[in-house]
Amino acid sequence: MIPTRRFITASLLLAAMGLGPLWYEQAAALWVSVLASLLVVALVDFFVWKRHSVTVARQVPLAISLDSWIDVTLLVSNATHGRKLTLELFDHYPESFEAEGIPASLVIEPGNRAEVTYRVRPIERGPAEFGAIDLRFDSLFGLWKRRARVGEPSTVRVYPNYSTVSKQLAYQVDSNLHLAGLKIRQRRGEGTEFHQLRNYREGDAFRSIDWKATARVGRLIAREYQDERDQQVIVLLDTGRRMLAKDHSLSHFDHTLNAMLLLCYVALRQGDAAGVMTMGDGRRFLPARKGASAINSILNHVYSVQPDNAETDYIAAATDLAIRQRRRSLVVMLTNVREEDSDELQAAVRLLRQKHLVMIASLRERVLDDTLERPVRNFKEALTYAATNQYLDARQDAHNLLRAAGVYVEDCLCEDLPAAITNRYLAIKRAGML
Fold first, then answer.
1. Residue 280 three-state SS
2. What does pTM read for this prediction?
3. What SS3 state is found at 384?
4. Beta carbons of 97 and 120 less than 8 angstroms apart
5. Cross-strand pairs, 88
6. How far is residue 416's CA from residue 135's CA, in Å, rounded to a whole number?
7. What kind of fold does domain 54-159 have according to CATH?
8. 315 φ, ψ (degrees, to nearest 5)
9. What is the DSSP string of 292-305?
10. Are 413 and 367 in contact (CB under 8 A)?
11. Helix H segments across 158-279?
């Protein structure tokens, strides 16, 4: 219960009237009577009030994409008999959300309904809860604002930003993969798996002609091949402290999740199976699976995973995966490789390469590139420039050692990561190396 502007204005006017008795003693009695009347009315208005019948229903999607604005709609109904209500409304959205358009004010006629729409943007993944809704409305005489809490809590899930995958789902032909920055390159030779027989077309290689089928039907028939299917892709997600770094509004870990989703979606479209394992202490493993529903399983498996301040144990993660994943696969490790990781990471890679093909995507902080692009104007900036170059050289040496060990290494910025790893996967498929 808080005083309204009407009550505050009346109190200020009464205080101003209190100066009158200083010059006119006969005005004192009038001032006291006005004061007493105001106090009586305020007390009556405070303790005696008419109950209002207001309901609020919230409309919000159950699944929300990280760092994307969405609309939340509140349906407010006034069932109070014969009285128009002036309301102030505030929705208790999750602390990990940003919001625009709330609190709001509205006037509702008796028996009518009004809509309040505001928008929110989640900045952290995982489950999130909207609380009850706070209302403030005037008391009977309008001297006080009363507070009421209505509505039911709502739980939503904040998933990785899968807008890139959503765009892909709108198209059902492989040529549209270009929209995500993916490059569909022609094979150097034919695929590794027989697909079908078809009529020979100009430009087909002569060695693709099936002479037995040609002799049977009396016209040239060619064999058509496709990339081998039913292979497996396992994504290893680093959940260590380095993935807490941010580029723009998202952490490096959130960027890796977005890239992982696109890679898994493309792999599933290619007829392969996709799985995920995290490399933190609370290790999670989702075995490789196929089918259109697999992308939903992957989303539900990782949407609440958060990076922590622990160091990443590459050897422990590689050992665990080697035990769990018996079938030969493409293992894609999403991390941030530095010089001090070289020995441990090479040991982990040697273990994985006994059976699997390994790709490591090493995220590079944008601030490093920005530092090298800025002009050097003083001694301090020169030291920063030299130190950054030295760090990047050492980082590149670590990458070169991994490449020498037979590992595919992608060194890229966050925004380049999805296309980089997916293009590499497609190149590996077309070369028949998996």
1. coil
2. 0.71
3. helix
4. yes
5. 105, 136
6. 46
7. Immunoglobulin-like (2.60.40)
8. -65, -45
9. TTHHHHHHHHHTT-
10. no
11. 163-169, 211-217, 252-269
Whether a cis peptide bond, with omega within 30° of 0, leads into 61 is no
Check residue 227 and give its pLDDT.
Answer: 53
- Entry field: residues in the chain: 434
Residue ranges per domain, the chain? 2-47, 54-159, 198-226, 228-431
Using a 10 angstrom Cβ sphere, with 0-12 exposed, 13-18 middle and 19 or more buried, the burial of residue 191 is middle
DSSP 34-88: HHHHHHHHHHHHHH--PPP-EEEEEE--SEEETT--EEEEEEEEE--TT--EEEE
Per CATH, the number for 228-431 is: 3.40.50.410
Closest CA to 47 of 138, 147, 148, 139: 139
Sign of CA dihedral 75, 81, 86, 92: negative
Which tokens is 56 given?
A: 């609020």
Quote the tokens at residue 235.
Answer: 């994504």
Buried b / exposed e over 241-264, threshold 16 CB at 10 Å, is ebbebebeebbbbbbbbbbbbbbb
What tokens appear for 109 in the block? 């006629």
pLDDT of residue 87: 84
- pLDDT tens for 245-258 read 888 778 899 999 98
Q: In whole angstroms, give the CA distance from residue 425 to residue 423.
A: 5
How far, CA to CA in Å, does 109 sit from each of 77, 85, 293?
9, 7, 48
For 152, what's the count of Cα atoms within 13 Å in the CB-facing half-sphere? Answer: 5
Token pair in block for residue 299: 């989303």
What is the token pair recorded at 334? 């999403």
> How far are the Cα atoms of 3, 4, 9, 23, 30 from residue 18, in angstroms, in the given order?
21, 21, 14, 10, 10
CA distance 260 to 238: 12
Helix, strand, or coil (residue 381): helix
Q: Which of 256, 246, 113, 270 is nearest to 192 (CA)?
A: 270
307-350 pLDDT, tens digit per residue, is 988 889 999 999 999 999 999 999 999 999 988 888 999 999 99
| Dist CA 427 CA 186 (whole Å) | 10
